[in-house]
Design a protein that fits this description.
binds phosphoric acid mono(formamide)ester, alpha/beta, binds norvaline, single chain, 9 strands, Rossmann fold, 13% strand
Length: 315
């Protein structure tokens, strides 16, 4: 599999085989690190980490991923550069492309990360935009694979804000890999119809089911229940409205029991607002899986950088 030179903006751009390869590479790099072996796949590379929005996991994963494989990470926060203010995104991209070997971007508009990729001429990785969060999905899929041993045919239910970056990206990732995917959300927060249609076309190829529903009974049979914050970064003023709308969609003990599967896992991309989208009780019961997800951000993000910047081969 050769992904060298590719950007990673959304999973829409990657085939099932390519996503599976990235998961396999991540598991390989994880195993290597656990054995105390660090590599030099990114030796001599300089990596820009642009953050318009705050981050714990994504920033740390990119930073440590670089250092583990010999690259130099350079953090550029929202007040450090002129991106889109005193300098056009196109010009910043062209400057960065002359100096850096790869660029991570987290921010608001998805169009910004697209412009960076178009004008920089180096691989650009999406560390989260308002629309997508693809590196998170790789960590989630790797965690599911570790938990169940397989992905194809699992029943995955995402509950809560059904039109945010997480819901969008999970829908793409699950349907591309044949995981049955249910988005359980009030109609006012259903995903964009065009994206749903696209994901239905992926589901048809991989033979899984995708449903968008308000019906709480659809939680029955879930192998994994996933939620995210009710107000994403930049939507803080919507808090009261969202709490009123999403209260019935909270993941609590009785909702987990409703799956009818004692083996069902609960997942969260973090950060979590306990007492809103999930109770402290459910969160703590499933903490091991949740923090596996967080750790897997490192291994999967490292895999994306290694695959797109180097000739590294798994032995
Ligand atoms: N899940 C995630 O992206 O976490 P951060 O916002 O801390 O990067
Ligand atoms: N939907 C959340 C995800 C955080 C990782 C947000 O955009 O804030």
């Amino acid at each position: 599999m050769n992904l060298k030179g590719r950007s990673f903006l959304t999973l829409k751009d990657f085939s099932k085989d390519e996503i599976e390869y990235l998961l396999e590479l991540a598991a390989h790099l994880k195993n290597k690190k656990k054995r105390g072996i660090l590599g030099d796949a990114l030796k001599g590379k300089n990596i820009a980490l642009i953050f318009e929005k705050p981050s714990t996991r994504t920033r740390c994963a990119f930073t440590i991923g670089c250092i583990d494989e010999g690259a130099h990470p350079e953090y550029l926060g929202k007040n450090d550069i002129q991106l889109g203010h005193k300098e056009s995104i196109e010009d910043t991209a062209r400057v960065m492309g002359r100096m850096f070997d790869g660029i991570e971007f987290r921010g608001f508009k998805h169009e910004t990360v697209e412009k960076l990729a178009k004008y920089s001429n180096v691989p650009v990785w999406n560390g989260l935009t308002d629309r997508y969060h693809p590196t998170q999905i790789l960590a989630d899929l790797l965690t599911l694979k570790e938990q169940f041993g397989y992905l194809q045919g699992l029943h995955f239910v995402y509950i809560g804000d059904g039109r945010n970056n997480m819901a969008n990206s999970l829908m793409i990732g699950c349907t591309k890999l044949g995981v049955h995917c249910t988005i359980l959300a009030p109609k006012a927060l259903w995903p964009d119809e065009e994206l749903v249609a696209l994901c239905h076309s992926y589901a048809e190829i991989t033979g899984c089911e995708l449903q968008i529903t308000e019906d709480m009974e659809k939680i029955v049979g879930a192998d994994a229940v996933y939620t995210d914050v009710w107000c994403s970064m930049g939507e803080e003023e919507k808090a009261a409205e969202r709490i009123a709308l999403l209260k019935p969609y909270q993941v609590n003990k009785s909702l987990m029991e409703k799956t009818g599967k004692p083996s069902a896992v609960f997942m969260h991309c973090l950060p979590a607002v306990k007492g809103n989208e999930v109770t402290e009780e459910v969160f703590e019961k499933h903490a091991e899986v949740i923090f596996d997800q967080a750790e897997n951000r490192l291994h999967t993000i490292k895999a994306v950088m290694v695959a797109t910047l180097s000739d590294y081969r798994m032995d």
